[in-house]
Amino acid sequence: MTFCQAFADESVRKSFIFCVVLVFPEDFAPIRGEFRSLCKPGQQRVHMTSESDSRRREILSVVARLPVRARLFEARLGGGRSQRVVRDDCLRVAVADLANEPVKALVIESCDQDQRDRQVITEIARKVALPEDFRYRHDRPAVEPLLWLPDVVAWAHGKGGDWGRRVVRTIDTVVKIDP
């Protein structure tokens, strides 16, 4: 069996969208190269919130051609639940979902929530049958271009309309998480 890695990031709109993109190792170098070529001079990464609409279309065209699969875990915000609680819920469901995939590693975009993410992952890993050699880490998108994938997919899905249509073939599943 061929194993892949999962790369995760979120987008926050009216709902919290946690996106996990599965990538096979043989595709790492070509995708990284293609994404790095999208960076403008002086730009360290592609980030959809800071791109123009024409650049967004260009980036989404590239993503639509890539041999990747995305899974979205979406939860409503509000109702007295903090964004952190919603993130925890999405992360728990996403990690449990990875137990059903040939995934050996999860890379999450690093932010000020890394320590809490580690606690949640450790908690859920005790409850689900993750592969014995399953690993996870946090990384910065300026260092790991494969983290740009979940940013792009989550942004487009959350934006909806024509933007969402451009990534619909990349998305395998959208899991709605209710409180």
Write the topology of this structure.
Layout: E1 4-12, E2 15-23, H1 28-38, H2 53-65, E3 69-76, H3 83-98, E4 103-109, H4 114-125, E5 135-139, H5 148-159, H6 161-165, E6 171-177
Parallel strand pairs: 1-4, 3-6, 4-5
Antiparallel strand pairs: 1-2, 2-3
Helix pairs in contact: 3-4
Keywords:
Nucleotidyltransferase, domain 5, single chain, six-stranded mixed sheet
Explain this structure:
A hairpin with a 2-residue loop joins strand 1 and strand 2. This protein starts with a strand and ends with a strand. By secondary structure, the chain is an alpha/beta fold. It contains six helices and six strands; from the N terminus they run ββααβαβαβααβ. Helices cover 39% and strands 25% of the residues. Strands 5-4-1-2-3-6 form a six-stranded mixed sheet, with helices on both faces. The chain has one domain (4-177): Ribonuclease H-like superfamily/Ribonuclease H (Nucleotidyltransferase, domain 5), CATH 3.30.420. The longest helix has 16 residues, at 83-98. The chain is globular. Helix 3 packs across helix 4 (114-125).
